[in-house]
Amino acid sequence: MRIGSLFSGIGGLDLAVESVTGGEVAWHSETDPYASLVLRKHWPTTPNLGDIETLVDPPAVDVICGGFPCQDVSSAGKREGISGKKSGLWREMARVVCRVRPRLVCVENVSALAARGLGDVLGDLAGLGFDAEWTSLLAADVGATHRRNRLFILAYRDRDALRLITERLEQQSTERG
């Protein structure tokens, strides 16, 4: 599976999506200079398409992943919600998803999104033809040394894509014994 990454940061979500899908990141979209250097170190041949707001025609991929800015959604922020200036960039992510039409979309954000925009995100995804599942996980649940709670959404056009991922994860589990 080919993966497109929006709001890539240093690629943490990208690594997880590669691991779960068996895919490979085909492109990033990141503007932060430091994060872009880290991406280039770990994915030296993967292009960084830059600012999502100027991204017009990204290459086709099977999966789009991204953690759009949380500042307006977070309990630590102004709590403007999904319509705030930064968190409102979700609309740009939805625009790219509409343009590319991937099979899967993986969204990551703070758990406060559940109260300040999850309905909008799910509604936008449904309008684009996706069903979705979501859950919250503590960072400590996957080995981090802190307890930050994150919300993950996996949206899909058809259950076939989910079946392929489930089979891959079951095989990996069997191989580990």
Layout of helices and strands, plus pairs?
Elements: E1 2-6, H1 12-21, E2 24-29, H2 33-42, E3 63-66, H3 90-100, E4 104-110, H4 118-127, E5 131-138, E6 149-156, H5 159-176
Parallel strand pairs: 1-2, 1-3, 3-4
Antiparallel strand pairs: 4-6, 5-6
If you had to describe this structure to a student in words, what would you say it looks like?
- By secondary structure, the protein is α/β, with parallel strands linked by helices.
- It is built from 5 helices and 6 strands; from the N terminus they run βαβαβαβαββα.
- A 6-stranded mixed sheet has the order 2-1-3-4-6-5, sandwiched between helices.
- The relative contact order is 0.14.
- The model has no long low-confidence stretch (mean pLDDT 94).
Task: Give a concise summary.
The protein is of the alpha/beta class.
What key attributes describe this structure?
single chain, 177 residues, 6-stranded mixed beta sheet, 33% helix
